[in-house]
Structure formats: structure tokens, C-alpha cells
Amino acid sequence: MDIKPLDNRLYVTAQPRFDELEQLAEQGFRTIVSNRPRGESDDQPDFDAMKTKAESLGMAWHEIPVKPGEYAQADIDAFADVLHTSKAPVLGFCRTGKRVSHLWALSLAPRRPVSELIASANAAGYDLEPLRGRLEQQAKQAKGDSAS
What we know:
alpha/beta, single chain, 6 helices, 45% helix, 148 residues, five-stranded mixed beta sheet
């Protein structure tokens, strides 16, 4: 399993298998966040079984299902909430990890420099450059909200 840090709280990976949950618990992960819709693909594990197993191993399980490239503000806010209120380290996953890196960056754009987010994601193997405009919009919107 290829797990990479996006920052000091969140790590990203592709879809873990059911039998890898014990390994994740042994590695110290306290929270797991799935960004895959249930039934997205035929080879997807049973999320009810994954949730039960993760919780039996002492890990919290959250689902914020999004389709690739379709990030509603409610999804971004939910992701930010899970990141800030969950016990770290947090492991986020989707099919490849790309959605996790996108939601992470969009949720942090109001508080961290966009260039820093892009560099951190790039170091983990995720290109956020195509998302730069949206990230800058998130950052600008947050500044506007705090000014009112």
C-alpha cells in the first residue's frame, strides 16, 4: 500500500483492501476518510464491512462520497470538519487518492498559501495545477467572507 503525507495530519492512498485495515491500525492511523461513492466500481470492497472492521480496530470511519471533479462546497466543508475534529493521523482514500488531495487543498485554501498546497500535493504525486483557479477562488472567497 502506497501511503503518502499531504501534511502533518493527513495521509493519502488509493483504495485499501479489507485485509489491509489491520496494517493501517498498526501503523497508527486513528481516522479513515473515504471519498468514494458506494458502488462506484465492481471491485470496490463492502464499506459496511470496512467500517465495522476499522471501528473494531479503534479507528473512526467517515464517508464523504464525491464523484471525480465534482466538489460541492458542502463536501469541502465536511472534509474540513473531519480533518479538524478527528484524531490524527488521518488516512484519506478514493480510487487513486486524487479526490482526497483535491478536497484537502480546497478545504485548506482559505488558510494556507495555494502555492504551498500545490507543492505538498505534488510531493505526494498529485498535480493540483489544473485546480489552481478553484483554489485561488476558495482562498479569495474566504477572505471576502471574513471581511464582512
